[in-house]
Amino acid sequence: MTTGDEDAAITADGLRKRYGAVQAVDGVSLTVRRGEFFGLLGPNGAGKTTTLEILEGLREPDEGAATLFGERPWPRNPRLLPRIGVQLQASAFFERLTAHEQLAAFASLYGVGARRAEEMLARVGLTEFAGTQAEKLSGGQAQRLSIACALVHEPELVFLDEPTTGLDPQARRNLWDLLREINADGRTVVLTTHYLDEAEILCDRVAVMDHGKVLRTGPPAALIRELDAPTRISVPSGALSAAEARAALGDDVEVVDDGVSLVLATREPAPVLALLGARGELHGLQVRGGTLEDVFLHLTGREFRE
Amino acid sequence: MKAFLSLSRSLLVSNARDRTWLFFTVLFPLMFLLLFGVLFKGGSAAHSTVLQVGPVSVLDRMTPAQRAELGRSLTIKRDDNLSDALKQVRDGTDDGALQQTASGQLLLHFSAGDATRAATVQGLVDAVVQQANQDATGRPPAWTLTTAQVEDQSTKPIQYLTPGLLGWAIATSGTFSAALTLVAWRRKRILRRLRLAPVSLTAVVAAPTAVTLVVALVQTAVFLGVATLPYYGLRLTGDWWLAVPLVLSGSVCFMSIGLLAGSFAKTENAAQSVAQLIVLPMAFLSGSFFPLDFAPGWVQSVAQVMPLHHLSAAMQDVLSRGKGVDAALPTIGGLLALAVVLCAVSLRLFRWDDA
Q1: Membrane topology type, per the record (chain A) (predicted)?
Q2: Which residue of A has its CA nearest to B353?
């Protein structure tokens, strides 16, 4: 099957997959353009990983069809395999092999010279751990090695399944830099995550998933803007009393004072900021727009659960 | 081919760094050979020692030739202190004390502590006395008895132990490596990762197989090397090179058993337990550690359906009984046929991952 869309790295049309009583994927359709950084976002059990596995060609969908570069990934398609790189949720390493040996092994599985192994180690910042057995690497280092194994053959399309889960904040940020570089090389990157901030920061577009369905697809900023969520402006309590604020700003502004902060929620922030500026009360001012969290809350009617 | 070599190398390195694996597949069976070889070295022929207390005419009158003949089964030592001699018999250092009373009667003191030794020493001394009585008549004996062992005169325990223990070693490493590799690769998602790499399934199956076969050949070389040391004294007879195809087909057969065990097991520990539960009882029931000649009939019947029994028996045939291709071929065929059946079953049960 070829699609009219020459630009598409991935198309999925009405994918469904059921495991016993659980409908893991329930009619997922999406398109990922070449060079795009695309995120599948949702809580655990939303169907992200199963969707990813269908796209990678690891599972056959019960219904619907997927294509990568216009070709079907299922059944196992040897023409596609050299073009895609996959990082699985659990790091798939050979036991007791060092970081360098793992990479050299994967390189030769893809028919790439072992010299690439050193380059990739340097690329993911693991040169000094070349002789360390994979089991002894830290969580962040193991994820980096796993990503290096996925990239060793220079694939056009990279699948990353929850690459930052279980990492400390510093390691997550380091990994984000690496992922941005990979995408900047011109590779298409598809990532699943249950971190909303991660999707917001990294992805060109996200598909918000829950219960096996895609609820919404689009650039994170557009999804948030579309939500038309109120801007929340807060100043320390005591700068302005709640009654004064209500009197000055009228009914369009929702005013809450919890004793620590005075929070003013409004869709028209200009008059509020003007008022605070005129009174010289801009110390400790915070302005927060909507986030993907709000989008998820809005779409599902409940808090994002982890 | 490149993928196959790369996978094989990775597996070999991974195995070589696993001390537990090295111990159980290479050292452990070898330790058994070294140990059993020493334990059974003297052979199973009973040898008794008797203390002669004071003059005993039947012993004193023996010719040097008779003495040498008797020495093969009975050692005579001299200890003229009766109470000291009795103490040695009582604590089992010697099997009997023989004295001649004033009336010319022969009196043998023995300990009932070990029934076999007691019976042996009584029989031996009785034979000596009967011989002396017969000689005293000055006439040739009316009846004589000669005995002959059915095995080759040179058969030693090492010639039984080497094929038995080698068979057990091959069975252990074959079963364990297949079961553990399958479960570990599935659990660590290596199978899944390989499925996403441009690697043929043939390479994925062939690499662990080749590694196990190489290990089996190394085990064979080490075993035969140790057993043929002068100290252990294994003499290879006839077409002993047939042990190589036997070892290879046995290894393939036990890998297929391990594959089946690995299809059911969910964790490495479970795989290890299942493999041990299969191999160890099979080794006992197949007579890998000791001959089944004295085992109950049902054990001997069970042994007939054990692939390990046939592997060990055929190896014994070609290694130490001087038999040839005729003895090895049916076993090779049987082992490979069983492997084909078990592989077919495993293929039906095969899953790429636990999900």
Answers
A1: Peripheral membrane protein
A2: A58
Q: What tens digit of pLDDT does each residue of B117-163 get?
A: 788 888 888 888 888 888 888 788 777 777 665 555 445 778 888 89
Considering only CB atoms, B18 lies closest to which of A82, A96, A101, namely: A96
Dihedral angle sign, alpha carbons of residues A53, B208, A152, A179: positive
Mean pLDDT of chain B: 86
Angle between helices B243-264 and B268-285 (to 10 degrees): 130
Residue-level pLDDT at A192: 93
Q: Which domain holds residue A284?
A: 230-289
Both A234 and A217 in one domain: the answer is: no
Mean pLDDT of B29-49: 74
Query: Is the pLDDT reported for residue A124 higher than 80?
Result: yes
In a domain, A297, yes or no: no
Which of B2, B10, B198 minimises the CB distance to A94? B10
Q: What is the ipTM of this complex?
A: 0.81
- Any domain includes A303: no
B19 touches chain A (CB under 8 A): no
DSSP string, B225-250: HHHTSTTT-----SSGGGHHHHHHHH
Residues of B in contact with A78 (CB under 8 A): 198
Is pLDDT above 90 for B334? yes
Domain ranges within chain B, ordered by starting residue: 2-41+156-349, 48-137
CATH code (residue A274): 3.30.70
A58/B192 touch (CB, cutoff 8 Å), yes or no: yes
Would you call B192 and A92 a contact, using CB atoms and an 8 Å cutoff? yes
Q: How many residues are recorded in chain A?
A: 306
A89 to chain B: which residues are within 8 Å by CB? Answer: 189
User: Phi/psi class of residue A60: alpha, beta or left (left: φ > 0; alpha: ψ in -120 to 50)?
Assistant: beta
Q: Report how many Cβ contacts below 8 Å link chain A to chain B.
A: 70
Interface probe for A, chosen from B193, B199, B201 (most Cβ of A below 10 Å), is: B193
User: Which CATH number do you get for residue A59?
Assistant: 3.40.50.300
Check if CATH label 3.40.190 holds for domain B48-137. Answer: yes
Asked if A46 and A168 sit in the same domain, the reply is yes
- Which residue from B3, B13, B189 is facing A109, i.e. has the nearest CB? B3
